Amino acid sequence: MNNNNKPKNLFDELCKDYRFKEGFHTCINCGTCTAICPAAEFYKYDPRKIVSIVQTRDDQQIEELLKSDTIWYCGECMSCVTRCPRKNGPGLVIIALRDLSARLGYFTESEKGRQLLPLTHIMTGNILNYGYCVHPKSFKWEDHKESGPVWKWHTEHLEQSLARQGANYMGDGPGILRKIPQESLDELKAIFDVTGGTERIAIVEKYSKLKAEEMGMDMEEYEKQAFEYCSDKHFNH
Ligand code: SF4
Ligand code: SF4
User: Fold this and answer.
1) Atom of ligand 1 nearest to the CA of 83
2) Is residue 156 domain-resident?
3) Atom nearest to 89 CA in ligand 2
4) Which atom of ligand 2 is nearest to the CA of 40?
5) Residue in 22, 37, 51 to alter for ligand 1 test, most ligand atoms within 8 A of Cβ
6) Which one of 68, 81, 114, 122 is most buried, counting C-beta atoms within 10 A?
7) Helix 47-55 crosses helix 59-66 at what angle (to 10 degrees)?
8) For residue 24, how many C-alpha atoms fall within 13 Å in the half-sphere facing its CB?
9) Residue with the nearest Cα to atom 4 of ligand 1?
């Protein structure tokens, strides 16, 4: 996908991000970050290589990285930050790379990047509609069959099950999973508006729509495939 908004220099653009400034110093390629990284255990993933590529300052290599699956494997646990002898934060560098990939629409070029659309809809939908990042009302067991029969029973008997766990599900007053007042939800929406969250949702939707057209799909089909499809090329085992 061509992008007319591409900045003159991708490395310089990354340097404007405070997370990049915080997480990127001289890397000695020791591999300590990869050794501690839980994502590297499961995915074909190596945070040392990511920092090493960024360190080249080579625009073409950085663009390939922004369009790849690689930057979406990180779980942002920040274990790497605690171990790097040069005080780098590969996890922070990856947040900056993801942000740039989203802004430029490069995320649509990779299978894992395309998952940004359903993830954005689910997470922001939960936050703006219910005031929670994850909420039972938007969790469908059919979409997560790996969670097993106990979880199936839980979703089918939600109120009963949550009451047993002491939650105040969608109730007034305090308690876990309480109903968030509309006034607070309106404040959340205002925060999204002034901090760029609303704009980010629109950008993700815009580039996803373009990619869906390129792939010959309508938006519903595209989002379903992005949510459900997972090739086996990502994994170590
Ligand atoms: S631990 Fe730090 S210095 Fe070592 S490879 Fe990772 S980022 Fe580079
Ligand atoms: S923040 Fe990402 S790169 Fe760092 S250890 Fe965690 S999963 Fe690995």
Assistant:
1) 1
2) no
3) 4
4) 8
5) 51
6) 114
7) 140
8) 23
9) 30
Considering only CA atoms, which of 21, 34, 42, 11 is closest in space to residue 92? 21
Q: Would you state the pLDDT for residue 5? A: 79
- Would you give the DSSP letter of residue 1? -
What lies within 8 Å, CB to CB, of 195 at 6+ separation is none
The half-sphere exposure of 226 on its side-chain side, counting CA atoms within 13 A, is 30
Predicted confidence (pLDDT) at residue 4 exceeds the cutoff of 80: no
Q: For atom 6 of ligand 1, which residue has the closest CA?
A: 33
Rounded to 5°, the CA angle 67-69-74 comes to 120
Q: Which domain holds residue 37?
A: 10-117+195-234
| Residue nearest atom 2 in ligand 1 by C-alpha distance | 84
Distance 151 CA to ligand 1 centre (A): 40
pLDDT in tens, 129-158: 999 999 999 988 998 999 999 999 999 999
CA of 225 to the centre of ligand 2 (A): 27
Summarize pLDDT for 58-107 with one digit per residue, the tens: 999 999 999 999 999 999 999 999 999 999 999 999 999 999 999 999 99
Domain count, the chain: 1
Query: Is 63 inside any structural domain?
Result: yes
